[in-house]
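ugh ok fine here u go
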Amino acid sequence: MEYPLLKLAAIDIGSNAVRCQISAVLHYGDRYRLKRVEYVRYPLRLGEDVFATGRISAPREEKFVKFLHALKLLMEVHDVAHYLVCATSAMRTATNAAEIVARVQKELNMPIQVIDGQAEAGYINRVIEHLLEDNKHYLHIDVGGGSTEFNIYHDRRKVASQSFEVGSIRRMQQEESGLSSEALNGTWQRMEEWVKENGRKYHVTRAIGTGGNINKLYSLSQTSLDKPVTRRRMTTVLDKLTSMTMDERVNVAMLNPDRADVIVPAGHIYLSAMEWANISQMIVPDIGLKDGMLQTLFEQHFDEISPLNNVSEHVPLASIPSRTNGME
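structure:
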C-alpha cells in the first residue's frame, strides 16, 4: 500500500559539489520531522574554473545543465511538492553566472537563487539555533570551496557574522599557483583579526563546524559520533593526511578524489579558527545549507502541510537531522 508523504527538496550548488536532498515531512500528534528519502551529490567543481579564470567553462556548464535536468527528473519521480535551488561562492563570482542562470530557467524552468554570504549564513542559522544551549557562547565555522562563513552566537542569539573569500578550492589553487605569501596572508590576517576580536568580545568557549570537509575529518577523528571532537585529535588526523600522497588518501584513507585534495586546506581553516578563538573542542552536527533551505520551505508552506488551521505561523521541526539524518 502506498503511504502518501509530502516531500520537499533543496539543491545546493556549491563551489566543490552540487547536492540535492529530498525529504519527507512526517507528522505525528503535534510533532513534525523531516526524514531524508534521497540524497545525491556530484563533485562538479565549479570553483576550479571560476577561481582560476573568473568564468564557468563551456564543458562544465553543459555538465551543470545536464545534472540539474537529472535532478529535476528525480524530483518529479518523487512527486516533490516544493523545492529551492541556491548557488553560493563560485556562482556569485563567475562573470557568466547570469547567463547560465537564465539558460537553466529557460530550458528547465528551474529558478536558481545566487545568494551572498549573509544569506547563506542565514539559512544555516535556521537549523544551528536549535542546537544551542542557554548561557553558552559559540563560534560557528562553515568552510566551503570558495568562502568561509563565521557566526558568533551569544546566549542563543547571533551577534556577529562575517564572510571571507577563503575556501578549500580557492586556497588550494592559490598555493598551487605560487601566489606570493603576502597576497595569501592578507585575507588570512583579516580573518584571524576578526575571529580574535569577536571571540574575546563575546567570550566564545565552544565551536560548531559545518561543511563536507569537517564532517569527513570528524568521522576520521571520532570512534563514537555525536560527541565533540578535540582540536588536538583533529590536528593529529590532519597531520597524518598531510603526510599522505593523493594516492594514499584515496586508497588508504578511503577518501573520494574530490575530497582528498581539499580536506587539508579546509582542515587548516577550521583548526586555525579554533586556535585564534582559544577553543579546544568542536561540535560537528551533520547539517548545512541544504538543511536550512528545507527548514525554510517547511515554514513557507506550513499552511499546506498542517492539517490544523489554528496553529502558529512559525513551527520549528521537532527534531534536527542527526548524523544519519533519519535514513534507515
